[in-house]
Fold each of these.
Amino acid sequence: MKNIIFDIGNVLLDFQPEKYLQKHFNASVMGDLMMIIFSSDEWIELDMGTMMIQDAIESLTLKHPHYHDEIIFVMENWTHMMTPLEKNVEIVKELKEKGYHLYLLSNFHKEAIQTMFQRYDFFQLFEGGIISANEQLVKPDQKIYQLLLQRYHLQAEESLFIDDMLSNIKMAEELHIHGLYLPYQADLRTELEKRHIL
């Protein structure tokens, strides 16, 4: 194994919108905002790179005027919930020291990923990566995996992909990339030790 490919949300950065919304809203409003924002077509378009944050705010507030202020607050501040999963970040550093080539493969909004790259310097450990919004492709579309392999001249059989969504792992494995399914809060170190990578 030469290349380790990381998803970002819930693998490198904590992404638990319900927990975040609970801090600011009551249970009823939280439930509504989860549906209105995080299950919206606009959220998918942000990942696809076919919509920017201001467009999404305009669209969502037009559809849900009774939550106008709440939508704006969440859309302008949600990246603050994304804090490093420190144990996994430490593993990234160890893998780099061991000589593995590190890459990113993530569904992420354009503006939000720029914020993350500026906020957290551990992203500098990665040699490259594919972010959905920059390519207008999202996992688990096989084209996004193929693009990663082609752009960085990677051999699928020499690459391990870590993701918290089973559907994303299954597509990687169809393309002969080794998959490591990592449900939220699963122990990455144990999984990598099992595979003799750490």
Amino acid sequence: MIFREVENMLDLEQSAGYRRIFNKGIEKGIEKGIEKGMEKGRRETLRENVLRLLYRKFKKLPAPYVEKIRTLDEYALGMILDNIFEINSLSELEEYL
């Protein structure tokens, strides 16, 4: 019985301090999730733009090239995008893959 009273007195979930800390944690988690989602969206947009421009430039892209492009990080995708006008053959594209 004493333990129940102590448990009731120490019911942290009901305390204002606990709720503030909990809500702050939720807010930070949401912010992190939004940031990660935006980062993923930027990477996907960059990837799709690179593929679209390469298809337009070369008309066809071999499947292994497409698969490799889908695994590239933002830096490598940006390098392809920055140099799209200098890449004149699939063998030149390989230098960026």
